[in-house]
Amino acid sequence: MIVSYLNYIDSITDFKFSTSTILKIIVSQAKNEKAFKESTLDKLITSFPILLDLEQNEEKLSERFNPALVTKILILRDVWKQTVMKGGSIEIEINYFCKANETQINTAYELKTKQLENIISEKINGSKIIFHNYSSKDLLDLYQKQKPTRLELTFKEVPITTEFKEGYGYVGIVSIKDYYNFITDNDGNILEDIFESNIRHYQGDVDVNNKIKESLETEFEIDFWWLNNGITIIAESPSQISKTLSLENVQIVNGLQTTFTLEKYFKNFHNNNQDSRSILIKVIVLDSEKNKKAIDKIIASTNSQNAVPPVLLRATDDIQRKIEIYFANKGYFYDRRKNFYKNSGKPASKIFTIQSTAQAVQAIVYRETNTARAKPTTLIKTKESYEKIFNEDTPFEIYLTCALINKSVRDYIKLHLSKEDKSLAKAYAWHLAQCVASILTKKGNYSKNDIKNINVQNITKENHDQSFAILTQLVNEFKATSTTTSDTSVAKSGKFKDFLNEEIVNKI
Description:
It is a single chain. The chain is an alpha/beta fold. It folds into three domains: 9-144, no CATH class; 150-308, no CATH class; 315-507, no CATH class. The chain is built from 22 helices and eleven strands. It has helices at residues 38-51, 58-64, 67-85, 107-123, 136-144, 176-182, 207-218, 256-268, 292-302, 318-329, 340-343, 354-364, 369-374, 378-381, 383-389, 396-416, 419-427, 429-441, 448-452, 461-480, 487-491, 494-507, and strands at 22-30, 89-97, 128-134, 150-154, 160-163, 168-175, 231-241, 244-254, 278-285, 333-335, 351-353. It has a six-stranded mixed sheet with strand order 4-8-7-9-6-5. α20 crosses α22. 32% of the residues are buried.
């Protein structure tokens, strides 16, 4: 199964919907209670008919639900419609978590579970619905399930060893069945983590994948590796026993399309041990900390045979590498390659992504809070906006300062606001970050140099309180003269952005 997560509505254009598309909707409810309660199900039974009612517009949804949920509902609706139109399938998973020592439920609870499933089935015809109850014991069992730190790959013959200045590697032939076992877990699910360094995910039913599929399903008289470019793997700390390599920190950097097509082949057509065909494997052994530059070149070069949109290679841009180095020198971690620092065990509070940093710069430096809020992925997809945000003329201090201001805002919202105020602040978090920058610089119309000179260690709760007060006042003033009153809509509005930029000058 190919897993892709949608967090922003403008990300939908990156996906190709087809009859093979599986939309999985996961709804989770966590309660700080020691038993599974029917009242929790009652709330879901009341909410789902509204959440799945396509006649409910954004304004009506905003009257009942918080802005974050409304945003998710709007994304769901778009993906739901496109999946149905293309003939794809839909799965709904509902998870109920609580602190019960074990899962104990009565007949009334089970009946309400069935009632909820029936409500969803009526709204989304033909969907597959799964309901899970997770006790504290179940959660502990899930937590203790650890992914393997090492993977074993068995070649048909002892692999050829090659050496070079910066490292060494292995080249050999592996049976496609053994490779399938290498890239899947005990349940037959593909190991997504080993593809983190690949610049693009599975592309679906494109021409190259259809040809690979055709080769697998029809060319049984010709060995598969004669027809395929093979797989490139980067790994660390190899241990070899005869034909088997044990590898640590495995990353498949080229061959993702082949891998996913092969995985589908075994799952759907040929899940047995009779297929004797092979695939060519290159294993490059490099220390991920010491050889980052070499690894980036390998990733870029091995993926250049086919046309790749420039946005997919952002992580290997020189400017991104320099920002990463600057953050590291200051004790923070710029997640240039997705999940690299998370997998290295670095604290989440010190990790900043390319995406969130771009949004912070857009909102704080350029005071374009509407696009930071409404079109976050476009900031790094579009060449013009990407180069405006990430360029050598911008001091590296600004990227970290903006990231830390954004973090301080998120922490303030989480720790210091009431439930009602928290809902408002979350909708306008990027606007609040701009207000904080104005308070710190004592200017409504500050410069890049002013942002560079901010000492984020001096940010206080009082700064945030003052910023939130100013923002709340301006939001109310804008709503008083606007036909749009939904916080979700106002936050994305270019008109409110202009209003904020003009009025904040008078407030500071």
